[in-house]
Request: fold
Amino acid sequence: MVDWQANALLVNSVRVTIMQNKQLPNVHLRKEWDLRVRTWFNQPGRKLRRRNSRIAKAAKIAPRPIELLRPAVRCPTVKYNCKVRAGRGFTLEELKAAGISAKYAATVGIAVDYRRRNRSEESLALNTQRLKEYLSKLIVLPRNAKKRTAED
Reply:
């Protein structure tokens, strides 16, 4: 190690070399600090804007749900498998048990996952029940306003 490296000092995360018995340099790193730092001062405003846009979207499509209907699935691993969460989409087997085709499900706001498999009868029965309950509450209006009846 060279002797000047031994006398190197770290001041405000800047390496400063001390040669003689002089005063410590005052490193002026406060100038234009906002150019060197990524700030998040706009975070609360963005949060409010997102919230307002979600509320506006919900009001715009009023009776319809905002998101797709998703199945109830169990988390993987022993630590979390007691927790039930929303999955990506219903399996083809669940849709078939509820009497829905995959193409029709996509048009009425039901998420479909072609890759997921049913590993237990309990989850199959639970998600089939969810689908039947959703379909019982579902009101599908004809696209053409002239074809609507008094019931619609």
Remarks:
- The first strand starts at residue 8 and ends at 11.
- DSSP finds six helices and four strands in the chain.
